Amino acid sequence: MEELFAFIARSRNFILFVLLEVVCFYFIINTNNYWSASFFNTSNRYAAQMLAWSNAARNYMRLKQVNADLADENMRLHAELTELQQKQPIAPATYRADTVFAKRFKYTVAKVINNTTQLANNYLTIDKGTAEGIKPGMAVISPSGIVGKIRYCNEHFSVATSILHSEFRVSARLVKGNDIGTARWDGVLPDRMKLYDISRYKPVSKGDSVVTSDYNSVFPPGILIGRVRSVGVQPNQTFHDIDIDLATNFGNLSFVYVVENSLIRQQDQLQKLVDAEQK
Fold it and tell me: Which family does it belong to (predicted)?
């Protein structure tokens, strides 16, 4: 306390000067319309700027929750869209799936906590595991397209094989051409894939959407893989050489959706019986 009084005593002239300046400023503003208007306009401008910065900071702090809410909403919309697509397939128009079949795909939202893109065999880690019903073999998609397939799980985390993996294959369909092929990464660029097994005698349009086909038991049909970037034909080859621009940007993956096909076991068992008969 003595030090405070000593400081005031030493600085009394400066403190008196500041107080007189404040009083003078007050009288100037209150007795002169021009300076009064100027002061309030300036103070309002700076106050508005401070409020804008404050709101921007609060909105930034809320981005995590906003992203989580959007991911939950997208999950519900994906489930509804998939159900509608299964009830009303492209053809024939008379076909109608039963309720169990139409609702066979179930979605779980998860956050990506690790992701590689520069390796020959890339993986990503998510924050959901067996405690949330995640199992190996389930599909992983993003809001913009396919991502990969679950490979390992523990109680609270899972590792998925990325589509940027040398052994990853997915049955794909050209939307305009309606031709079925196989999409596979060639190990070069993390934003492109190759589409194989499309006959050179079938027309392929640049920019045509490439989606998962109905032949998949893991991925729901109609999930975007990418769009045709270029079409070529190698000499003495019977298939097009097609490059695809991937729909999913693996450089900024944040939230993904794990998709469970509740009928996959029945589907695979039946397919194994057919394959065994053909051998």
Answer: Belongs to the MreC family.
